[in-house]
Structure formats: structure tokens, C-alpha cells
Amino acid sequence: xxxxMLFLALGILASAMLIANTPTMQVVVLLGISIWAxxxxxxxxxxxxxxxxxxxxxxAGLIAFTRYLLRRKRR
Length: 75
Description:
- By secondary structure, the protein is mostly helical.
- It has a domain at 23-74.
- The chain has helices at 2-21, 25-53, 62-74.
- The chain crosses the membrane at residues 28-49.
- This is Putative membrane protein.
């Protein structure tokens, strides 16, 4: 929980600093779109791994999945 809150605080701080540096509507909109797109990518990656790659594999994140793939290719 604390790790998630720290990530949230870091994201808010970085976004606020970007907007304060260049306070235009274009920057706000592009930042919002990029945040949304990265969130959707991460969700999609987990969905694909869970449903199409290996439904039995329990992973902690994309790094764990990469390790899984590397181990699987060696065998």
C-alpha cells in the first residue's frame, strides 16, 4: 500500500512540475493522454499474459514475466 502511495505521489509531483514549467493547455492534455496510454498498455500487457501466454503463471510484474520468458526459451 505504501509503495503504491509513493508512486502516486511521485506521479502527481512530476506532473505538477511539468505543468508548472510550461502551463499550457496543450501540455496538460498531452500529459493526460500519455498517462492514460501507459496505464492502458500496462493493463493490456497483464491481460494478454494472464489469458493468452500462460494462465497458470503468477507474476509480480513485467520484469518477472520477462524472466519467465527467458527461462522458458533456455529449456
